[in-house]
Amino acid sequence: MSQPITNRYEFVLLYDVENGNPNGDPDAGNMPRIDPETGHGIVTDVALKRKIRNYVELVKGDAPGYRIYVKEGTPLNDKHAEAYLALGRDPKQVSLEDISATRQWMCANFFDVRTFGAVMTTDVNCGQVRGPVQINFSRSIDPISQQEVTITRQAVTRPEDLGKERTMGRKHIVPYGLYRAEGYVSAKLASEPQKGTGFSDEDLDLLWDALIYMFEHDHSAARGKMATRKLIVFKHESDLGNAPSHVLFERVKVERKPGVAVPRSFSDYTVSVNREDLPAGVEIIEML
User: Fold this and answer.
1) Is 137 exposed, middle or buried (0-12, 13-18, 19+ CB in 10 A)?
2) Per-residue b/e over 119-133, b at no fewer than 16 CB within 10 Å?
């Protein structure tokens, strides 16, 4: 396994949606999530992490060290038991040493545990991992318009339904929305002795690729047209960091162009990055 990262990072991700639902709210009939006070759209961190996991699984498959821990249809305890079996330990007689060893095994074998962390204190206890990569909720630059579109289906399911009226349904879409997410990569949580996850530079490169290309392999009629537009990374010289994250995030400005009343494309916005008087030891890298 490669050595853990030694630099702290922050990043700003800009992505947009056209005639789709980027993240439905099950408590609101799967309508696009929204801040009720401002009307701005919201996408949860869980939704983005799911897309990152899917991309990594698509690229790496079950390659050693790059398996995915949080997957549909696979019990988590089975993976915990696999760790105990691989290390020759008994999951029914667990010591602190067993938990530490299985925790390290899980980090070494599962990309998303090594990256995002995991709470594995279940019936088969593999401990708890604080992940070095964390992502905030995304928020749209402008208020979004939630639209409900009626659709029809020509085909019927059962023969006895022939001759009945066509089946009616609904789709929930955002005509257009540009979303901004901010994230953090902690070198300390990757490299700390005993508790570090081992998140490496190779893992980091895969994360950047996932953020850029994750929507390219996630297209569906429900999500419409989604694309990553900008990925701006702040790299620190040190593992602890050389400037507060919020100060760096404020250097990325996204503004609607003059005369645009209702934005309907990425070209309706201007993205600027303030590179003047950068804090010492901080580098700005535009990945996209």
Assistant:
1) middle
2) ebeeebbbbebbbbb
State the pTM of this model.
Answer: 0.92
Tell me how many domains the chain contains: 1
Residue 57 lies in a domain: yes
User: Is 29 domain-assigned?
Assistant: yes
H or E element that contains 139: strand 138-143
How many whole angstroms separate alpha carbon 126 and alpha carbon 119?
Answer: 8
Residue type, 152: T
- Nearest CA among 160, 172, 124, 102 for reference residue 113: 102
Cα-flanking dihedrals φ and ψ of residue 245, to 5°?
-60, -40
Average pLDDT in the 26-50 region?
94
Six-digit token string for 208? 């950047």
Q: 256 in helix, strand or coil? A: strand
* pLDDT tens track for 134-146: 999 999 999 999 8
Cα 263 from Cα 271, distance rounded (Å): 14
